[in-house]
Amino acid sequence: MKSSTLKTYIAVHTWVGLVAGFALFIAFYAGAITVFTKRTAHADQFRRRGAQGGQRRRGARDDAAAI
């Protein structure tokens, strides 16, 4: 195999790997956002309600203190 052909294959392999890796990164990042959208929306809603002084749920500590 010629040296120039080998260098071309190495360059093509490098660029294909970088492009494919970047595409996979975008796909996995978008997938993670899609999977956790419901949880982050719920956490954001909980934070907003807490910041507005909404009712706080009673926990086991509150029940024990009431006795």
From TrEMBL:
<dbReference type="InterPro" id="IPR005625">
    <property type="entry name" value="PepSY-ass_TM"/>
</dbReference>
<dbReference type="Pfam" id="PF03929">
    <property type="entry name" value="PepSY_TM"/>
</dbReference>
<feature type="region of interest" description="Disordered">
    <location>
        <begin position="46"/>
        <end position="67"/>
    </location>
</feature>
<keyword id="KW-0472">Membrane</keyword>
<keyword id="KW-0812">Transmembrane</keyword>
<feature type="transmembrane region" description="Helical">
    <location>
        <begin position="12"/>
        <end position="37"/>
    </location>
</feature>
<protein>
    <recommendedName>
        <fullName>PepSY domain-containing protein</fullName>
    </recommendedName>
</protein>
<keyword id="KW-1133">Transmembrane helix</keyword>
